[in-house]
Specification:
EC number: 3.1.3.-
Number of strands: 7
Number of helices: 6
Distance between the termini: 17 Å
GO molecular function: phosphatase activity
Organism: Tsukamurella strandjordii
Strand content: 15-25%
Strand order of the largest sheet: 3-2-4-1-5-6-7
Structural class: alpha/beta
Protein name: Histidine phosphatase family protein
Keywords: Hydrolase
Length: 195
């Protein structure tokens, strides 16, 4: 049975400033954000195939986590398009537009102005799963917090962790062509939360 390991990219200036960082934001990771161990050093299973979101922050993280490996860049692993909300301070959204913030966080059908819904993100990830090559046991992916949270909520049916921190890893088992179950969460400081 195929396992997927999804890792959120390393910290960026937008993360430090608590800005909404969607698909349109493409800043680099912070200097010093990639000083920890690589994929194997974190105790994650060695992948048969390596993938990254097209965003710079994800690719920089993939280069660090997969040293010397060729990884495939796949658009379907990109961050959620937050449209007009991209770059907005998260606190300003919560305080000035609480209804909008609640819909963005909890309504899978909600489409931010000029953006995409969580259902659309889940659909493109399902497409990614269906296109995985046959015979691959473990897939390593560097992607984004919102995508991972959406996968956990809409494909795995869990609300355990709605916020994935930078460099946290989530191990999932593919149980159907487009359905997954959570196996393990490895925090950024390499603590196994659930096995």
């Amino acid at each position: 049975m195929t396992e997927l390991v999804l890792v959120r990219h390393a910290r960026t200036a937008a993360n430090e400033a608590d800005l909404l960082q969607g698909r349109r934001s493409d800043g680099p990771v912070l200097a010093g954000a990639l000083t920890g161990p690589d994929w194997v050093g974190r105790g994650l299973p060695v992948p048969d195939a390596y993938y990254s979101s097209p965003q710079l922050r994800a690719q920089q993280t993939a280069v660090h986590l997969f040293p010397g490996r060729v990884f495939h860049v796949d658009e379907r692993l990109a961050e959620r398009d937050l449209g007009d909300l991209d770059g907005m301070a998260a606190e300003a959204l919560r305080s000035d537009h609480p209804d909008l913030a609640a819909r963005l966080a909890g309504d899978a059908r909600f489409v931010p102005p000029a953006g995409e819904s969580a259902l659309e993100v889940a659909a493109r990830f399902r497409s990614f799963l269906r296109d995985l090559p046959a015979g691959v046991d473990t897939v390593g992916c560097v992607t984004h917090g919102a995508l991972i949270a959406i996968v956990l909520r809409l494909l795995a049916g869990t609300r355990e962790r709605s916020r994935i921190r930078n460099l946290e890893a989530v191990r999932l088992r593919l149980v159907a062509p487009d359905a997954v179950v959570p196996v393990q969460l490895v925090t950024a400081d390499e603590q196994v939360v659930r096995a």
